[in-house]
Amino acid sequence: xxxSEKDIQKYATEITKLNDxxxxxxxxxxxxxxLTITGLLARGHILLExxxxxxxxxxxxxxxxxxxxxxxRIQFTPDLLPGDITGNPVLQETSNGREFVFQPGPLFANLVxxxxxxxxxxxxxxxxxxxxxxxxxxxxxxxxxxPVPFFVLATQNPIELEGTYPLPEAQLDRFLFKxxxxxxNAETLERIVQHRELGIEPKVESVMDEQTxxxxxxxxxxxxxxxxVANYIARLxxxxxxxxxxxxxGIRFGASPRAALSLASAAKSRxxxxxxxxxxxxxxxxxxxxxxxxxxxxxxQARIDGTTARDLVGKxxxxxxxxxLDTPATLKEKANA
Amino acid sequence: MSETEISTTWRHIAxxxxxxxxxxxxxxxxxxxxxxxxxxxxGVVLYLRSIENTPSLPILFGAFAxxxxxxxxxAWITTRRSYIRRQDALVRLEDQLxxxxxxxxxxxxxxxxxxxxxxxxxxxGLDWHWPRILTPFAVSITLVLAAFLVPxxxxxxxxxxxxxxxLAWEQMxxxxxxxxxxxxxxxxxxxxxxxxxxxxSEQPKDEWFSHSSMEASDSMRDGLxxxxxxxxADLAHAERGLxxxxxxxxxxxxxxxxxxxxxxxxxxxNLQSGALxxxxxxxxxxxxxxxxxxxxxxxxxxxxxxxxRKQLKKGAKAARKAxxxxxxxPGLEEGDxxxxxxxxxxxxxxxxxxxxxxGEAPISLGDPQHLGTKNFExxxxxxxxxxxxxxxxxxxxxxHDIDKSKQGPQQAGAVKSTxxxxxxxxxxxxxxxxxxxxxxxxxSP
Lengths: 337, 445
What we know:
The structure holds two protein chains of two kinds. Chain A has two domains: 9-196 and 207-218, P-loop containing nucleotide triphosphate hydrolases (Rossmann fold); 223-319, Magnesium chelatase subunit I, C-Terminal domain (Helicase, Ruva Protein, domain 3), CATH 1.10.8. In chain A, strands 2-5-8-1-9 form a five-stranded parallel beta sheet. A two-stranded antiparallel sheet of chain A has the order 3-4. A two-stranded antiparallel sheet of chain A has the order 6-7. Chain A is α/β, with parallel strands linked by helices. In chain A, 43% of the residues lie in helices and 17% in strands. Chain A has helices spanning 5-25, 30-41, 56-67, 82-86, 122-134, 169-172, 186-195, 210-221, 227-238, 257-273, 281-292, 300-304, 309-319, and strands at 46-49, 71-75, 87-94, 97-104, 111-115, 136-139, 142-145, 151-156, 177-180, 251-253, 297-298, 331-333. Chain B is mainly α. Chain B has two domains: 3-149, no CATH class; 169-344, no CATH class. In chain B, α6 (167-182) runs parallel beside α8. The radius of gyration of chain B is 53 Å and the shape is flat. Mean pLDDT of chain B is 78; it is low at 324-350. Chains A and B meet through α9, α11 and β12 of A and α1, α3, α4 and β1 of B. β12 (331-333) of chain A pairs antiparallel with β1 (126-128) of chain B, so a sheet runs across the interface.
């Protein structure tokens, strides 16, 4: 059953409050905040990439406070073991004698900040990524369900590559978005200096409870995705594969069907944030780069030429028309259209 | 504005957009066809104007209009796959107007229709490409008008009708007609030939031009042509003979008269026994002339002889005409023949073949009185490369070349010959192994 316009407006108002709250904590990162909320509402995990000190951790902290959900932070290091994040069985004295009791690890939280995820060994990375996909962990043959909602916001540093384990493409695919945290401009830095103080955490007002968040996430699933938009998503993802577009000449491996699902889910989420009952071409275009850029593998020559995945997705958006219809030669596209 | 009115407005706008794009597709296909039709029409109009019986203008315009309608239908049928639906037009509208797919959603009955803009402000992002549309129309109109206005010369009898029957039959019928007009030839023989032609024409029409029929026709035509040539030659001989006897008998010696008489009688014989014999009346008239009296020409009056000659001459002329000018003695007119006969003094004109000419050819070239029988000529063959085996190249006299150097007595066992030329090398220089090698080399084939 489709969601009503009234509910849409109600949820949009709640989301606006959350957005304003986060913007009051993290200055000059409006797009990052909107995409983070979009990703959360689409039930996706987010990989934040950026230099240290740009506010990644602060964003997560502010988010947890504003949403009133349990948050845990894991600092990934090379010696971190899978049990350190999933939890370990501990031998305890009980009324029945000694037995192993599962002690949940830091993954058992609504919002997990996986700091510098690329510093952990592949074994630990795999344990985290399995939890992200299945939303449960299995220890000693027993599955333990993770709480709902469950989000992972992972960060990685793009410049320090010594002693890191880059995430394989298959594991990157499990992140809904890969967001690049941009450096602040001088004006924003001035605001930060004026309104913030080193060592003192900003006060964040709680604007949404856990249940409301779950309701909004359910509402996202009810957003209408028109056939033409679904068709556009399909052609975009297909266009990342060899021979399907001009842009694909610079791509060795294209995006997976999971990318198409992620694109549709993110577009719906954005539509709800914007207070609309349906997803649109504009929503797809707005989330295409964060959804697709980490899911395509560039050709060697493209890398040599300095082309980035972000550039290629941008070109793909320009190449693939919203409608799969040709224009007759007796008509011409208006230049200002 | 109520929700219904808004939806009606949007759907109306969508239909207009749909019509515009579909019309563009139709024009896209129709304009090349229009240009092609105009080129063809211009060619047809020019051709029709160049022949005598030009169809009237309404018929031409009617045909052009019909072709135009057919092309329009063809263009519509072939571009149907490219035509967009109303839903596609809605998508185009919402994309151009940045309506976030609200029209598609509302059309599905899920959301509300957005407020429509003023009709004048609608921008579907597509403009007509006027040069591309108008140029083919302008070219077509120019071509058709030019075809009507350009001055054209009317060609008369532009095309020959295809032959209704083989050409050989027509030729033979023409020849028979010419011969019949002379009233010299036996009608039965002409009828026989005519029957043969009719026998050929009685076969089915689709076989008239078959290989066998054409071969038979050509063979028959060639045969008739030769008969007519022979007839013409015989008639000419007969007429010239009569003419010579009538007018020049007093200038001829006896031998010439005899020769002429023989030829006249031979010509009569041929005329009677040929494939195209003279008719009985003419033959009787010629037979009535007594050959023995011909030399004196006292049997017939001058008028009778003139009439007879005139008829023979007419027949020879007709035969020569029918036989393509090959009959008789081409190139020699009446006066020439007589002068020629008189100059030959009895040797008479040749009739071709190996005995032609004024007499026997001399047995030797040069002076026949001096045959050079007393001359001695040495047979020489300076080119020795062409000398045959056994030819005597030359005779010489010389002393024997004897080695007169003195040699002392030698013991039998000490006699040694070093040989000459290659033998010296063989005996003095080569080692036994080398000799063996050379033997093997020259022994092998």
